[in-house]
Amino acid sequence: MVELKTNTSIDAMHAAGQVLARALTAVRQAADVGVSLLELDEVARGVLREAGADSPFLGYRPSFAPTPFPAVICASVNDAIVHGIPTAYRLRDGDLVSIDCGARLDGWASDSAISFTVGRPRPADVRLIETAERALAAGIEAAVVGNRIGDIAHAIGTVCRGAGYGIPDGFGGHGIGRQMHEDPSVPNEGRPHRGMRLRHGMVLAIEPMLIAGGTDGYHAASDGWTLKTNDGSRAAHAEHTVAITEDGPRVLTDRG
Questions:
Q1: Is 125 annotated as belonging to a binding site?
Q2: Spatial separation of the C-alpha atoms in residues 170 and 188, rounded to whole Å
Q3: What average pLDDT does this structure show over 52-80?
Q4: Residues in contact with 29: Cβ distance below 8 Å, sequence separation at least 6, in sequence order
Q5: For residue 213, what are the contacts with CB-CB under 8 A and spacing of at least 6?
Q6: Are residues 125 and 117 in contact, defined by beta-carbon separation less than 8 angstroms?
Q7: Is 207 annotated as ligand-binding?
Q8: What is the DSSP code (8-state) at residue 165?
Q9: What pLDDT does residue 153 have?
Q10: Which positions in this protein are listed as binding substrate (predicted)?
Q11: Residue among 88, 87, 115, 94 at smallest CA distance from 32
Q12: What is the pLDDT of residues 106-153, one digit of tens each?
């Protein structure tokens, strides 16, 4: 069942989204060669704590997970696509890092992700990240009243496939509100003009995930959480929480 949010609720979700935007900005600024993933998690915790927010990630345990998630960020490095658990690993020159984070403020959740490189960037990584951002922008542009979920999926998939990248099957965006994961699902590939019609008050987490090698295969690492590319190629992830409104898509996690 899809819950339509009121304008007041969307404003409240925007407040949560702005806390999250500050957390991701702080993590990005702190990320450097020699900094550990655990240290980045502490940075995000500090921003949430200062804002009086908590984390919908911490302690989250979906059906596939062997243990509750132990952190407030997912930190996925190089061939890790999503759901990476922060560890003592220290970032190295040239690493590609994807940080996914959530914030919950006054009962409303937000969800967003960024990808970036540390140290000297590889041109191939820059292109991969730029394509992830373009795919996200295309998905947001299609998130308008009267369109359908398939229009968002088609917009994202067209950008990703057009650039020669793979898309991990079965993972994509989702509705969001009081809960981090709500209906509907938002695939990263699909047919236009199909699926649920978009209405004012729907709020979606739109999140393309790209595999550089062009294949779609992935597997779970030994921690049961981290998804890694089967071909060993690098991956990128970009995400925003977006409200569907009569005035067009409203990005609630915009980082300014």
A1: no
A2: 9
A3: 96
A4: none
A5: 166, 229, 231, 232, 233
A6: yes
A7: yes
A8: -
A9: 98
A10: 83, 181
A11: 94
A12: 999 999 999 999 999 999 999 999 999 999 999 999 999 999 999 999
Structural tokens at position 99: 């940080």
Name the β-bridge partners of 108: 105
Give the least confident one: 63-72, 159-168, 242-251. 63-72
Q: What is the pLDDT of residue 3?
A: 94
pLDDT of residue 63: 87
pTM of this prediction exceeds 0.90: yes
The token pair at 222 is: 């030994």
Look-up of token digits 């650039």: 163
Asked if the bond preceding 184 is cis, omega within 30° of 0, the reply is yes
Residue 200 marked ligand-binding: no
Which residue matches tokens 């000297």?
120
Share of the chain above pLDDT 90, in %: 97
d(CA 95, CA 125): 9
Distance CA(223)–CA(68), nearest Å, equals 11
Residue 256 — pLDDT band, cuts 50, 70, 90?
A: confident
Tokens encoding 13: 């979700």
Q: What residues contact residue 17 under an 8 Å CB cut-off, 6+ apart?
A: 103, 110, 112, 241, 251, 252, 253, 254
Contact at 8 Å (CB) between 12 and 25? no
133 is in an annotated binding site: no
> Annotation-wise, does 254 bind a ligand?
no
174 labelled ligand-binding: yes
237 is in an annotated binding site: no
Residue 134 buriedness (CB in 10 A; 0-12 / 13-18 / 19+): middle
CB 101 within 8 A of CB 54: no
pLDDT of residue 64: 84
> How many angstroms separate the CA atoms of 148 and 178, rounded?
23
Amino acid, single-letter form, for residue 250: R
